[in-house]
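Hi,

I'm pasting everything inline rather than attaching a file, because the server keeps stripping attachments. The sequence lines come first, and each chain or strand is labelled.
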Amino acid sequence: MSMTPILETRNLHRRFRVSQGHFKPKATLQAVNGVDLSVQRGETLGIVGESGCGKSTLAQMLLGLLPATSGEVRLDGRPIADLRRVDFARRVQPIFQDPFSSLNPRKTLLDIVTMPLRVHAIGSRAEQEARARTLMDRVGLPAGFADRYPKELSGGQRQRVAIARALVMQPDVVICDEPTSALDASVQSQILNLLMELKADFGLTYVFISHNLSVVEHIADHVAVMYLGRVVEKAPVDAIFDAPQHPYTRALLDSVLTVAPDAGVPELALGPGFPNPLRPAPGCPFHPRCPRAFEPCSTIPPTPVPAEGRGAACHLTEMTPRGAAA
Amino acid sequence: MTDTTPTASIPTPGASMKSPSRLSLRRIAEQPSLLVGGGIVVLMILIAIFAPLLAPHDPFVQNIAARTVPPVWYDGGSWEHILGTDQLGRDYLSRLIYGARISLFIGFAAVAIAGVIGTTLGLLGGYFGGRVDMVVTFLTTVRLSLPIILVALAIVAIFGGSVTIVVIVLGLLKWDRFAVVVRATAAQISRLDYINSAKAAGASTFYILTREVLPNLAPQLIVIATIEIASAILMEAALSFLGLGVQPPTPSWGLMISEAKNYMFFSFWLIAIPGTALALLVFAINLAGDGLRDLISPDGRG
Amino acid sequence: MGALLTVDDLRVDIATPRGTLRAVRGLTFSVNAGETLCIVGESGCGKSMTSLALMDLLPRVAKRSAATLNFADTDLSDRRKARRIRGNQMAMIFQEPMTALNPAFPIGDQLTEAYLHHKGGSRAAARARAVEMLDLVGIGSPAERLGQYPHQLSGGLRQRVMIAMALMTDPKLLIADEPTTALDVTIQAQILRLLRDLQQKLGIAVIFITHDLGLVSRIADRVMVMYAGAMVEEGTAAQIFGAPRHPYTQALIECIPQPGRTARGTPLGTIPGVVPSLVGQIEGCVFRSRCPLARRECESHVPTRGAEGHRWVCVDDAPAPALEGTTR
Amino acid sequence: AQQADNAVRFAYDQALESPDPYFTTLRLGVILGRNVWDTLVIRNLETGEFEPLLATDWTWADDETLELTLREGVTFHDGSSFDADDVVYTLSYVSDPANRIVSQQIADWIDSVEKTGDYSVRIHTKGPSPAAMEFLSSQLAIVPDGYYSGPAGATEQALPMGTGPFRFDSYSAGGEIVLARNEDYVGSEFKTPASLDRISIRTIPDQQTQIAELMSGGLDLTMGLPRDQAEMLAQMPGVAVESGETMRIVFLQIATSDESSNEALKDIRVRKALNHAIDKQAISTNLVGEGSNVINAVCFIDQFGCTEEGVTAYDYDPDTARALLAEAGYGNGLTLRLHAYRERHISEAIINYLAEVGVTVELNYMQPAAMRDAMRSASVDLAQNAWGSYSIYDLSASTPVYFGGQPDDNNRDPELIEILTEAESVMDPDARKELYATALRRIADEALAVPMFTLPVYYAGAEGLKFETYPDEILRFWEYSWQ
Amino acid sequence: MLIYILKRLGLAVLVALCVSVLAFALLRVQGNAASALAGEGASAEDIAIIIRTHGLDRPVVVQYLTWLANVLQGDLGTSYFFKRPVAELIVSKIGNTVILAIMSLAIALTLAVPLGVLAAVYSGSWIDRICSGISLLGQALPSFFLALCLVMLFAIHLRLLPASGAQTWQHFILPAVTLGYYITPPFMRLVRAGMIDALSNDYVRTARAKGIPSHKVVLKHALRNALVPVVGLVTVQLGLLIGGSVVIESIFALDGLGYLAYQSIGYRDFPVLQAVVLLLSLVYVVLTLLSDVVNAWLDPRLRVS
Ligand SMILES: Nc1ncnc2c1ncn2[C@@H]1O[C@H](COP(=O)(O)OP(=O)(O)OP(=O)(O)O)[C@@H](O)[C@H]1O
Ligand SMILES: Nc1ncnc2c1ncn2[C@@H]1O[C@H](COP(=O)(O)OP(=O)(O)OP(=O)(O)O)[C@@H](O)[C@H]1O
Ligand SMILES: [Mg+2]
Ligand SMILES: [Mg+2]
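And the predicted assembly:
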């Protein structure tokens, strides 16, 4: 546990100025609000949360595509702001959600997969292509596909291409932002299997973002739960699923619809207040919906979850001793 | 979104898939408007290129004694001058053939200039957004608020009419549509994940703009270009018609119409011939443009 | 007898440049009053086309045909009669609550529109009914909401408005095409509950279309599994999830990680291959190109087996052995 | 036709910059000047003699003093009566260069004007002024005392005002002008009250629109149609076409002054080549038509002092032209700019002739005022002029304008300037004639211009309109009537 | 709302300023203003006087600012050619252009909206093809050519309408038809595209699902949304219209602004040309401003909650 995490964030913030329509002044939106996370080499960190809670924004910042408003992202302990763009790019690569928009429709698959090599001028043209073909083979794309265009591929095949592109430079960390949400169940399982195999083969570290808790449970080692830009709970995967501490995590788990013909539709104790990211509630942002909210929740923000270790940002858990802490 | 999952016929899954080029060739063949329009345009381009070979006479040689000879199908017409002669006794067919050169050259050249300006501005605005976009939008608004014909007329009046000036003026004035469309599309594209992937791979902005964004604009660019070429050709004709475009004796169709208009009540063919040629060319270009648009977005939107 | 909706040999053909795309290939099913039928299947298998065909809302390129299409003893192929039923006794809600409401009109107008058209009556009566319905779907201060525009509501609220809108005319059948797919899980759970409660209270039949097997297992009375435009298996939820007969149904269930059943980090079940092209006829079993058990017989006509309660389309009569997850 | 209304609708192809004849060079302005205003004297076109109009009597007291007796009982259109004050005011105003009337030469011979009685005035000239009567009978229209409120023709009048047979009924700049008959017109034996009630004048720049209007009955009279159209119109029912010879001469002005940047034109061989290259006769016969005569001197032959005697005539000879060009070192071609403002078909014919001897011509076709600018800033190589001499039958109104050192002179030949200036102050007719002849010969020998031909004017009118045409291109509406 | 309008206004003012600089620069830099002012026969001294009195010897920036200040006070200068206040000239001509513009716009809209809706509702069918054929032909036929043909037919052969001028309302028919036809295609295309877009929206399907008759769905649900961009286009088209009016007005000798501008180009009458360019640009700017505000007002999504 004393090892330097391969990727970590320190008090990461990201604000957007958003227009609320023509007639109103711009408002500030805290998309990511003081996130502390760390990922150890070789592990998979799952991030879950509802739509709009800041998962993708976080992913963009982890990829260095979006500058942080404050706080920093560190790779091997070094702030990525100090790294050259290209050097960072060699080590951290993305897989995105939408298999349709993640491939340039005007390029052949071979062009798409060799693109990073070309950008970095690694090897000769022939070497680049050879490497790309090897990888395409590895992710299970038929050999004849090299000269095809993305539009001829199914969603699953596209996602394989995206994976090949991400891996062609042999990165250490892969940030997967909902890589299977757009896929059918039967294809999703293929991609998940592939990701798990590749992780073992290449010794990859994953940050795996999803709103599908079953998937995260299946693939992740650690899980962070986000709500309105904050990490509200973080723990090893068993702990989260077996003994969720934060009421939101519990609600989330309850609302997962696993195959259970007799279970019926779960009854959620959540209040109806829909979160408005532009006007988050004071104190604990979850308190308007929280079934167990009590007096300090509406005024005092709970202590954030530390980067290392586990815990929940909740006044309820603060009163009981934290689990095996950092 | 309609799933375009590729085909795998049942008995032998994953078997022969049609090659993309054959597929699009077939789709082109299924676009009658593209075929007809494109055919006419190509024909006109060929005529323009081979004008010296095709024209039966020198388009500039006048014969003041044999003026306004009617076309061959009228009384008094002759096979010597199939479409007759103009008010200075020049062979009308030859002038018409050379006129295609002027119209097409001005159309293409002006739109090339406009395309470069508009695309560059649109790309920058759409891709970078924020301040850059504000500047681009502002420039476009200013441009749009200028009455284009009037400004073109004024500039041509100041600097004199010639093919070069007309090309430059139209090129400098007609970039707005390129900018608007490219900006919107580039803004859309730059939010797509393949751009993020390229960024994440460390690609430079220049690389992204030229290799990832620009190629995807090609279809729109072609469609706008056809519309704009047609409109530039018409605008040149209008300028020449008003006497402020290409100057005589250059055989521009607009100029031919302008010169023939004085004769329209007595020798209607003098104005009808270049008028029809012009309308046909513009019609064909627009038709081809429509076909291209349908080819690119089969649901016929926008 | 007793069936509210009877569909026999429903087909939807779409003219495409590549040929006729047969989106729905001879579906036969029925829905009884008050029951929930879930139609489940992967993307593009024809679920939406089926629902649109029932409502006569197909795009112009699509052609519908059916041997029988009866709703409460009315022949729906008679378009004039069908129009009187559509939006009245048969209502529909769509997937995207964001776009399914017209941004230009306040929701009050949109709520009362169908009511005024089908039931007539005064505007005030319609508005009163709208308030009642909004209240029913759990929207607070419903009277004020009538003047609001769709953009002023959150996704969950909009979907509730959609449901209220569908219920305005007191329909007997509600067709819901992926009504919760665009929603967050917690909101999905709330909407599903709402639907469930309403159904029990009002006794409406529901055709619920989704690709989420977990969801289906929770709400369905009966389940129809579709593949490539055709029904492959149909039965009660218990039958489908407890003893699936069709290899596709079995494989599909294996694909999703199920806490408790699939161990963490272990490979999941997969279905190799891709969905066949829907253009043109498919002789024999539609699933055979991907079926691990496929054999010669599958290439010719495949019979529908089982009885009314549990039907499946396969050459195998006996329950197929549970498929082992085949990883690539 | 507007027979019933006893009105005539006339169209002109250029907009009038000002309704005041002193502040426009446009033919339409000259026409309005004659119809709305009166001059002191009037020329009898049959005899060529000067006859009374606003002045009943005049005598030259000496070479530099002219005494006039004015007509009594004349009123301006606003009812105020005409007397010596008006003449003194008008002539003083226009002869003061500070007031910048557009063609100063018509008045700059006047030194001062004095009132010698209620109805008599005395004009002192700056020196012998042979053309004085010419100007007094043509351009010098009399306006009421105190008419102008400042220089450059500024007035506070709602409508322009004179004593002529017609008065302004309405005026819109660049738009329609309506004249109404002056019921109180006195005139004289040589300028009589009008018979028409109204004249409406519209600007219609396009000839084909004018023709359309004529043919559709929206117009009763137009002038300046090209030959082809006129001839074809003549065959249409309801339209009558008349052609009339005019004083208007077409010639190419060649820029040779020091300010001119084109070196080629400073070579006499090039200029001669230009003269040889153009088949004036062919253009004159075919394009311009009947009433057009080829000229060799830059003046109208009936003008006092104009002669072709001893003036070199260049015949159409493209071979010689080519040879001359080759000799001058332009065998491989030469590019020149041609400025023109009317008769574009003639420009085009010229361009084509020049093209045949290897001279490429860039045409700059523009409005007269713009071309005047260009000429005066010496940025013109060749200028195609069509000069009407303000209808003045004296050479001083033509040749000196382009060769006598005036602003439009693009040659600035010192010798010519000297000769022409001298001629303007010599009273003896023969001596003047000789000086003019010398100048005309020099112009031809040096090939400083390409004289081409005279330009007839074609008038097209509705059938039933009785009108007479004159070589001075002035429409005397007061003589018009419907049959 | 106020903030939005103010912001939009600020932008409009900025655009107008930019246009004014262009208008000023374009026409002042070139051409010899002084000699144009001086008129024929002016001597060097005259020109010098004019240069001084008109401030033509001062730095361009100062000239611009002076000009701008004058313009803001409604003083558009004096026409070089007509020697009259430009404002007066413009006032006397603008009426005709406005009549022409309104008539053309009315013709264009009455043609374009129904045709566009028809083409969209039956998109892909022969009705659509006929409509798009009409629009293609409209685009291809040069307006000046059409104008001449119309004159030939209606004025000469049928003698139904006057060939030129602006004296009565009949005089406006031919020019308005020409101009209206000229701008119909873009309108029609936009209505069609907007309608196809609107019709493909989920809310249209929702409306259909309610069992409402399709004409009502089309006219109420789709058209309302499709017309919003048309409002915007009307302003853009007005620019085109005015541009087209230069050609049309001069063919029909219709004494309006476009014709005045065309004349002033020929006469190098900079103050008039400047004023017309500026005026037309301002009209455009103001109209876009208005249409933006109206659009924002129309579109409930943008309205205050
Ligand atoms: N560029 C941006 N400008 C303004 N707001 C933004 C921007 N990007 C994201 N946001 C806002 O930030 C919040 C977080 O967005 P983000 O995309 O990170 O959410 P998410 O958790 O990935 O949601 P989803 O599950 O829908 O993908 C949202 O409210 C979103 O609207
Ligand atoms: N307008 C159309 N033109 C051509 N093909 C269409 C059209 N609409 C749908 N299809 C095709 O019809 C088939 C069935 O589509 P349908 O929308 O019913 O699928 P679905 O099961 O609802 O899928 P999803 O889960 O993605 O909504 C698909 O293969 C689709 O590609
Ligand atoms: Mg996201
Ligand atoms: Mg669907």
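Chain C has one domain: 3-313.

If the labels don't parse on your end, tell me and I'll reformat.
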